[in-house]
Amino acid sequence: MSGMWSVMYWLFVTPVYWISAVWYRRMRSLTLGDWFVERYESKAIGVAYACSVVFFFMTYGAMMFTAIGKVAAPLLGDTMFGMQLQYTLLPFVAVVVITYGLLGGISAAYWTDLIQGICIIVLSVVLIPFGLSAVVDKFGNEGDGLMDAFRLMHEQLGDGAFTIIGGSAASEFPLYAIVSIVIINMIGIVLTPHFIVTGGGTAKSEWDARVGLVTGNFIKRFCTIGWVVTALIVSRCTAAT
What we know:
The chain is mainly alpha-helical. The chain has helices at residues 5-8, 10-13, 17-27, 32-40, 43-76, 89-139, 148-157, 175-188, 195-201, 206-240, and strands spanning 79-80, 83-84.
């Protein structure tokens, strides 16, 4: 369960957004590269930042496309139109994203984030009642309710699966790792290339920037709890088989 800290560490970074959102709102720059050029009167710094951004998005995009492939492969199979999935689906997704981004600009990005956000919220909770019901139906006794599914999962998976901080597995997150990651991201998040837009820079007012950024990220952290519960349900069913 402590594996949730791979994304939940943003919970402690989010309050910093109440301060940083105003910075981006007051910059009045399209990108951080533009701001560096204006602030330090050096095009070289802007170019250096732009080069670093290219490598950042290469890595960031690779992770996103890998995630798309992991989800799509079980649904569509390893091939599409007689070719490997990575040579058909992923280029198609890339072309669609680039096209609507160029044609719609920030407006297109906002609509995309809105639709994506609604889907994330719905999908984060919609599976839980069905999963809990399936656990009770398969492993419970007559008269057990949905909440008894947590007892059944705890009996099968043990205390280790419900440990919030640390754990017996080497991949889990001890307290010192969580603290270190939080500190690193508090410092690094303000220079993330896309954050000048999504971090409040395009908000109508400073209040909108603060409330939108902080509230949105807290909602995302709430959704993480849904992912954890879903993972526990899947682990219970897998362990039984």
